[in-house]
Structure formats: C-alpha cells, structure tokens
Design a protein that fits this description.
The chain is an alpha+beta fold. It contains 6 helices and 3 strands; from the N terminus they run H-H-H-E-H-H-E-E-H. The chain has a single domain, classed as Orthogonal Bundle (Arc Repressor Mutant, subunit A). Strands 1-3-2 form a 3-stranded antiparallel β-sheet. A hairpin with a 2-residue loop joins strand 2 and strand 3. It is globular, with a radius of gyration of 14 Å. The N and C termini lie far apart (about 30 Å).
C-alpha cells in the first residue's frame, strides 16, 4: 500500500472502509458541510469569520470545526491568539466529491 501512495500521490490510494468512515462521519452534519463550503471559498477562515458568514453560534461552529479537524478534513493553524482553518488535501477532495451531487 505504501508503494501505491508514493507512486501516485497521497490521494491516489484506495482508502480502507474505516478511513472512509472517518471522513463521512466527520462531514455528517449540515453545519459541517456549510463550513467546508465556506472555507473552500476562502483560503483560510477563523471561527469568528465562520460564525459571521454562517450566522451561527460561536460555540456551535467551534465544536463543528473541531470535529472536522479530527476527521482530517480541515487544517488548523495558530496565528497569535487566533486559530485559522483551511481545507486539508482530503478536505479539498471531499468537497469536490460533495459538489458532484
């Protein structure tokens, strides 16, 4: 399996059912899907930016971004006291998959 990943890039390998489950469960909420779309339109967004864009509660958005980070769909980067989120490579692939529906 590692040879496949090295030869074709990280997204070229077939994922195990457990890995796929992690991604699908990570995005299994309308708020999380909205977060993926919002971050996809912008390169980076903080929880404050997402809260304003989605007109939602800060605590709610914070919890959903945490779930998306744990699922491997979002990256988290600290900029001083601010935390900025961006799509991970798998998040980009997952968002492209969602857009096909």
């Amino acid at each position: 399996m590692l040879e496949c990943c090295r030869a074709s890039g990280i997204l070229g390998c077939m994922k195990t059912p457990q890995q796929l489950e992690r991604y699908f469960k990570g995005a299994a909420n309308h708020r999380r899907i909205a977060i993926l779309f919002a971050v996809g339109k912008n390169d980076e967004m903080s929880v404050e930016d997402l809260t304003a864009a989605l007109k939602a509660n800060f605590k709610t958005i914070s919890q959903h971004t945490r779930s998306l980070v744990q699922a491997g769909l979002l990256n988290k980067k600290y900029q001083g006291r601010k935390v900025v989120h961006s799509l991970s490579p798998y998040g980009r692939a997952f968002l492209a998959f969602i857009k096909t529906f």
